[in-house]
Write a structure and sequence with these properties.
By secondary structure, the protein is α+β, with helices and mostly antiparallel strands. It is about 30% helix and about 40% strand.
Length: about 140
């Protein structure tokens, strides 16, 4: 599978898009080596009105358009934590099912995961283990 990704920088209004295809291994390396804590500390030095985004990496599967985003923040003790955002096509009922179903892109979010667990879910995403990710959002 091939992926592309985008980066949300705290100080930049425009999202940085990297459209060159990357492999599963490269996705994991980018996420593991991204300077999450440095970006958060930098964000802390900005005036609140100048912070555009929380540090984020959003990976998209080029073939099926599903995407998985990691967004960094601090927990109540000031430690690094992540919210995970999973976007994928999902069948939804139209008018309570009276008009059948249609496919629509849906985004679910999950908050307060540590770095290691966030990377595990990213690994499930790049390996196509979507049912494991779906379980996270049903809990």
């Amino acid at each position: 599978m091939n992926f592309k990704y985008s980066i949300c920088h705290p100080e930049k209004e425009d999202i940085e898009y990297i459209n060159s295809p990357i492999s599963e291994k490269e996705v994991l390396e980018i996420a593991e080596n991204y300077p999450w804590i440095e970006k958060l500390k930098f964000s802390d030095t900005l005036k609140q009105e100048n912070v555009q985004y929380s540090p984020s990496l959003d990976f998209t599967n080029i073939e099926n358009k599903k995407s998985f985003c990691l967004t960094a923040g601090y927990d109540k003790n000031g430690k690094l934590e992540f919210s995970l955002w999973y976007s994928r096509p999902k069948k939804v009922k139209v008018l309570f099912g009276l008009l059948g179903e249609k496919e629509k892109m849906v985004v679910d979010d999950f908050w307060s995961l540590n770095f290691e667990n966030s990377l595990k879910y990213l690994e499930h995403f790049v390996n196509g283990n979507y049912s494991t990710i779906e379980k996270l959002y049903r809990e």
